[in-house]
């Protein structure tokens, strides 16, 4: 008799476990439906391969989440209290809470671009009224509870029929194959830079897809590498409608001055001195020097985006901007400007780069012999172009030339270049980093000579802007360089020559976001508020905002007066002092971060 009771008890527990597995699978399907909201914020794949990966990754990820919830909260109760009524009620409550949390995470992700965490919860709690609209936050949980209770009873009543059909092993095998194949596909996509797959890395909560890059680099294997981070952007798109510019621009150009914008990759502000860059040192003293200037990012993509659009580089991850050129380009073309672009060639098509430089006449130089050789060719192309504009037969239309020099990023100099003597670094570096430091100085000295050659060809009536696309840290680890948002990576010089303007040193803080609105108002005569088409921070007076956003939507820093906060999409953050030398033990102010997040989505909320 006792053996029979034990057998009945085991059968009952076994039946409850089977029921729990199918209930978890059902909730995995519900979680996928709720998780579709992530894609409405993030965007959908553009290729069959991308769709295939998204399907298997979604099936495996949400099934995994549902099973973990079952294993942690329900499986122990099944063994301790094997009573179906109690378990079904508890399971419905746990599943409902889990789905509500997931739903809340989709709201936070859509509004802030980060997943739920203690930090994100504090942020959302401070902004709760803006996140929750109407009565849906009351009705939806009630609806979820009803669905869960119904599903729990429905599956329990039919669990024996389901067991007889022996679907369980097939489902487990299928989900397991999805899990393995999604990670293997991502390893390949990460190595080959397939952005239609890797752009979903942070789409789902607790998602950590396997990667190949660190393994390959540690073993000296090179993946598909292109024009530095220029071509490795993560494309996203939003469901909300982009309003850019917010209102039709009212511009009336007064005088059509020629404009020369020179952007140098990896040009640190603290490396311009009499020995390293003597020409540029003299030139900045003779013109307007902005001594506290910051790029919008630490990579080519984010730095150039902030330079040409005047917007936070988080917008560069939105697919709408991959089909929308800068409004400044439109206004220059409307005003009759001829636009020339002088930079190393791009080795493959890239939607964001094409969009940023749309409307320009491209004069590309070859990268085959390195960055310095490409820069020599770039300067030669610019010289020919400028000479053609000076011919008597040339059209009298004004011109805007954008020049991008790249040698410092690669620590490169031409063969046979006679540089400058090595010096002791003014800051602490490791032995290998000291070598990079002095080779970097040689590269800057080479760039200084190219700048001298360029600027002797333009007349004094030409408006000239010289800046860095981004800064540089002395590290050969590409991942560390990409994630570094210290002042060394983002603080760059800005020198502006304006006809009939006296030399001046601007000591208040400025950024790349101020270049577009300054040119639009001062040169193109645009009367709109700067916020209609940019972050609204001009260069001619201190910004009203007490912060600068630097980075993209994956990892970014907020520069404030006395501290720097670095955050990632998962809500993890660290706060440093203004010199980035010490980590501060404090919590971030949620209201100020809300301002930052709102600015990054303002053009979608009009």
Helix content: 40-55%
Number of helices: 20
What's the total count of β strands?
Answer: 15
Average residue-wise pLDDT: 86
Structural summary, described in words:
The chain is an alpha/beta fold. Helices cover 47% and strands 11% of the residues. It is built from 20 helices and 15 strands. The chain has helices at residues 2-42, 48-80, 84-112, 118-126, 128-131, 136-157, 159-164, 168-192, 195-198, 213-218, 278-285, 300-309, 327-334, 351-356, 371-390, 431-455, 478-483, 487-490, 515-522, 590-599, and strands spanning 259-264, 288-290, 293-294, 338-344, 361-365, 399-405, 463-468, 494-497, 504-506, 510-511, 548-551, 555-559, 563-568, 573-577, 583-584. An eight-stranded mixed β-sheet has the order 5-4-6-1-7-8-2-9, sandwiched between helices. It has a five-stranded antiparallel β-sheet with strand order 11-12-13-14-15, with no helix packed on it. The N and C termini lie far apart (74 Å).
Notable traits:
five-stranded antiparallel β-sheet; eight-stranded mixed β-sheet; alpha/beta; 20 helices; 606 residues; 15 strands; 47% helix
Summarize the structure.
This protein is of the alpha/beta class and 606 residues long.
Topology, element by element:
Blueprint: H1 2-42, H2 48-80, H3 84-112, H4 118-126, H5 128-131, H6 136-157, H7 159-164, H8 168-192, H9 195-198, H10 213-218, E1 259-264, H11 278-285, E2 288-290, E3 293-294, H12 300-309, H13 327-334, E4 338-344, H14 351-356, E5 361-365, H15 371-390, E6 399-405, H16 431-455, E7 463-468, H17 478-483, H18 487-490, E8 494-497, E9 504-506, E10 510-511, H19 515-522, E11 548-551, E12 555-559, E13 563-568, E14 573-577, E15 583-584, H20 590-599
Parallel strand pairs: 1-6, 1-7, 2-9, 3-10, 4-5, 4-6
Antiparallel strand pairs: 2-8, 7-8, 11-12, 12-13, 13-14, 14-15
Helix pairs in contact: 1-2, 1-3, 1-6, 2-3, 2-8, 3-6, 15-16
């Amino acid at each position: 008799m006792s053996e029979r009771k034990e057998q009945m008890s085991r059968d009952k527990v076994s039946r409850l476990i089977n029921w729990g597995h199918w209930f978890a699978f059902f909730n995995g399907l519900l979680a996928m439906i709720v998780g579709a909201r992530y894609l409405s914020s993030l965007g959908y794949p553009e290729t069959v391969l991308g769709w295939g990966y998204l399907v298997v990754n979604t099936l495996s990820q949400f099934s995994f989440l549902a099973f973990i919830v079952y294993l942690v909260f329900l499986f122990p109760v099944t063994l301790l209290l094997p009573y179906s009524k109690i378990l079904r009620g508890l399971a419905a409550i746990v599943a409902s809470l889990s789905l509500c949390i997931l739903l809340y995470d989709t709201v936070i992700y859509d509004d802030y671009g980060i997943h739920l965490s203690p930090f994100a919860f504090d942020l959302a709690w401070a902004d709760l009224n803006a996140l929750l609209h109407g009565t849906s936050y009351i009705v939806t949980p009630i609806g979820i509870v009803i669905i869960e209770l119904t599903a729990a009873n429905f599956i329990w009543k039919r669990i024996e029929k389901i067991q007889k059909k022996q679907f369980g092993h097939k489902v487990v095998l299928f989900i397991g194959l999805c899990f393995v194949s999604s990670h293997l596909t991502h390893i390949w996509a990460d190595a080959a830079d397939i952005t239609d797959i890797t752009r979903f890395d942070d789409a789902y909560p607790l998602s950590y897809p396997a990667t190949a890059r660190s393994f390959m680099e540690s073993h000296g294997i090179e993946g598909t590498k292109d024009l530095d981070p220029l071509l490795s952007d993560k494309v996203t798109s939003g469901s909300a409608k982009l309003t850019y510019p917010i209102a039709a621009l009212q511009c009336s150009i007064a005088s059509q001055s020629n404009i020369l914008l020179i952007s140098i990759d990896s040009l640190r502000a603290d490396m311009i001195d009499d020995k390293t860059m003597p020409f540029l040192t003299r030139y900045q003293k003779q013109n307007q020097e902005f001594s506290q200037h910051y790029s919008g990012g630490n990579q080519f993509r984010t730095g150039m985006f902030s330079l040409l659009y005047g917007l936070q580089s988080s917008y560069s991850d939105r697919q709408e901007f991959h089909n929308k050129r800068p409004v400044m380009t439109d206004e220059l073309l409307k005003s009759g400007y001829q636009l020339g672009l002088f930079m190393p060639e791009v080795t493959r098509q890239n939607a964001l780069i094409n969009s940023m430089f749309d409307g320009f006449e491209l004069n590309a130089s070859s990268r085959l012999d390195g960055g310095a050789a490409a820069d020599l060719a770039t300067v030669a192309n610019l010289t020919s172009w400028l000479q053609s504009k000076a011919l008597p037969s040339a059209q009298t239309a004004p011109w805007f030339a954008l020049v991008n020099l790249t040698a410092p990023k690669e620590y490169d100099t031409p063969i046979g270049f006679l540089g400058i003597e090595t010096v002791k670094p003014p800051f602490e570096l490791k032995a290998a980093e000291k070598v990079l430091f002095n080779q970097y100085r040689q590269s800057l000295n080479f760039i200084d000579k190219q700048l001298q050659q360029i600027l002797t060809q333009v007349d004094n009536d030409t408006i000239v802007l010289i800046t860095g696309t981004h800064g540089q840290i002395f590290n050969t680890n590409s991942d560390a360089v990409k994630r570094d948002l210290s002042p060394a990576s983002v603080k760059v010089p800005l020198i502006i020559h304006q006809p009939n303007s006296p030399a001046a040193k601007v000591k208040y803080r400025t950024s790349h976001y101020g270049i577009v609105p300054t040119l639009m108002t001062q040169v193109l005569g645009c009367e709109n508020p700067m916020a209609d088409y940019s972050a609204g921070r001009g260069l001619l007076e201190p910004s009203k905002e007490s912060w600068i956003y630097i980075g993209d939507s994956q990892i970014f820093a907020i520069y404030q007066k006395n501290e720097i906060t670095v955050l990632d999409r998962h809500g993890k953050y660290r706060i440093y002092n203004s010199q980035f030398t010490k980590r501060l033990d404090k919590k971030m102010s949620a209201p100020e971060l809300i301002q930052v997040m709102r600015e990054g989505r303002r053009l979608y909320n009009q």
